[in-house]
Amino acid sequence: MPRVGLTPERVVAGAEELADEVGLPAMTLAALAARLGVKLPSLYKHVSGMEALQREISLRAMTELGQVMSRAAAGKAGDAAVIALMAAARQWIKQHPGRYATTVRAASATDEQAVAVSEEALSVLMDVLAGYGLSGKDAVDGARAVRSVLHGFSTLEIAGGFGMPVDVDRSYDLLVQALCRSLGSWGSATPA
Fold first, then answer.
1. What is the per-residue pLDDT across 104-127, written as a single tens digit (0 to 9) for each?
2. Which of 26, 94, 99, 109 is buried most, with the most CB atoms less than 10 Å from its CB?
3. In which residue ranges does the UniProt entry place its DNA-binding region annotation (predicted)?
4. Contacts with 111 (C-beta within 8 Å, 6 or more apart), sequence order
């Protein structure tokens, strides 16, 4: 019988917090059980294992990140939308590094729920890129560029990868401005 008060929701919430504190690779079911004050077998009444738990974290994280980006970009267009969306996402990633780590891998095409959640978050970015006149393959390329800049900078920042004595925010702002200029001419660019 499941412990009173322990629910799948509470297990996932505890796992999210733990992942953010110790990092996704260091999060174990044993550590989660200890955090929740239960024995390890009790967790299996609420989640089938680490893979299922990470999937649940990913679904919630992708939904939350999509909402954060949507709120940030609301009422904005072009550079202002990209700058706001990326700033909000960067802040969320810094606050939730463990949760974010579950969102990096593309959803499996056979997981309809994960695909739907991923597409919902991606639609926010695609709407912003449409403000640059990007559609089809150009929009996909633009989305990959935005995601790569955001992911690369944020994960390096979280890992302490910027040790030089120059303001990290200055470097970030310059990078985002360069990306915005690039997006402005993206559709006319032809890959070699």
1. 999 999 999 999 999 999 999 999
2. 99
3. 28-47
4. 55
d(CA 128, CA 100): 21
Report yes or no: 6 and 84 within 8 Å, Cβ to Cβ: no
- Which are the contacts of 131, defined by CB distance < 8 A and separation ≥ 6? 77, 78, 81
- Cα Rg for the chain, rounded, in angstroms? 19
pLDDT in tens, 126-175: 999 999 999 999 999 999 999 999 999 999 999 999 999 889 999 999 99
Is residue 46 a contact partner of residue 8, using CB atoms and an 8 Å limit?
A: yes
Right CATH number for 58-188 from 1.10.3720.10, 1.10.357.10, 3.90.226.10, 2.170.130.30? 1.10.357.10
Other Cβ atoms within 10 Å of 70 Cβ, number: 18
- Taking the C-alpha atoms of residue 79 and residue 27, their distance in angstroms, rounded to an integer, is 38
> What residues contact 181, with CB distance under 8 A and at least 6 apart?
none
Q: Judging by beta carbons within 10 Å of its beta carbon (0-12, 13-18, 19+), is residue 148 exposed, middle or buried?
A: exposed
Nearest by Cα to 64 from 121, 19, 10, 146: 121
Q: Say if residues 15 and 53 touch (Cβ distance below 8 Å).
A: yes
Single-letter code of the amino acid located at 46: H
